[in-house]
Design a protein that fits this description.
mainly alpha, Growth Hormone, Chain: A, 80% helix
Amino acid sequence: MELTNQTRAAPGGRSTALAAFAAVTVLFFAWGFITSLIDPLVAAVKGIFTLSDAEAQLSASAFFIAYGVMSFPAAALIARVHSVPSILIALATMVGGCLVMLAAANLAVYPLVLLGLFMLASGITVLQVAANPLAAALGDPKRSHFRLTLSQTFNSFGTFIGPLIGAHLFLQGVEVKEGAVVTEAVRKQALAGIDSAYFWICGLIAALFLFFWISRRIVDAAVPPPPLGTARANIFELMGEAFASRWARLGALAIFLYVGAEVAIGTQMALFLNSDAVWGQSDAPFGVPLLGFTMGSDGVAGVSLQEAGKAVAFYWGGAMVGRAIGSLLLARVSATKLLATFTAIACGLCLYVVTVGGATAGFVALAIGLFNSIMFPVIFTLTLERAGARAEATSGLLCTAIVGGAAIPVLVGSLSDAWGYGTALILPALCYALLCAFALAAARTPPVQAAAAATVH
């Protein structure tokens, strides 16, 4: 054991861990970019295929339901073949999903869109189960919150770019307001944009596969070996171990609520901003220098769907900025206090949109992303510290809970069909209130290691 500690403390060991962390962080960027394309895609398919809000939200459901189906199989795969081979399998699956999306765009078949998104998300699920604990493990355990939040910052950079490119490619001329008609020319153009986006994504994933294949020895060398005598667990053992832990269950509920709220707001955002009750008949956002420049006014009064789709980048961009700031704050502030503060503010912002509305509600809704920023990585690491189950089992359950992104957006879509986009944010507000309660409970519960040490002494 002394020899192992010396090896890890050596400068070469630190540089290897740093290179491995960089390789893993590239994956965070890639899946953030791909995931955030769902936001403009939901708005696009609503117009292309003439869907209701709830039907369009099935695109988000098809993507995020993969987490519910694939997370424990992913955890079992990682426990059996370890992180690097699992990541390579995930990237190959994502290439297959892109090919189905290309077929869907060329044949104009909505069910194929749903299948392609499910395949893409299945690969991303394996990446999530492998990469989240991997990023946390590559270095000093005391800085695991910092490392995972920093990786998530790059993930947020990908989510910032995704809506900009997606809105440019998918939403040119597409309108979804009541009485609007999508012409055949606009429909073909939007489908061509989807085809182009997923063609280049396919190339990006293939390049990542090659990059990670080349980096595989660096990552393997930096990953701490499992304790001696650790047996490989099958999927049922992992599930049993995870569900036996109260904190793994609480963490899973928290992830379910967080992802559901974040995705529901993001996928509805373009439709919400484009509505006449918010920015549809207002030029207010064009007066904000960076926001107005990014949206790129078409010269017509009000905010078009494409302009609104570009504004969604600021929802995800807020998460990117928040994670960068959060990485610094977590070095000084308790993770539980920061999580409680951010969830309470996010809840308040949602309630402002519900109760006040108007053009200012558009700016307030975009600001929610800033406070979403540190929620996922902090919930994840707080749960890993308190669960008591092995990391693969806990990570599998937490990533299964990302299925909240399939369930809650459809409910929010149904609420918006019935009562409007603003009122529908009452459900995300409830999610954030429950997340604040989770943070307060975590503050009262010491990590498993700390509790064990206290018992010994």
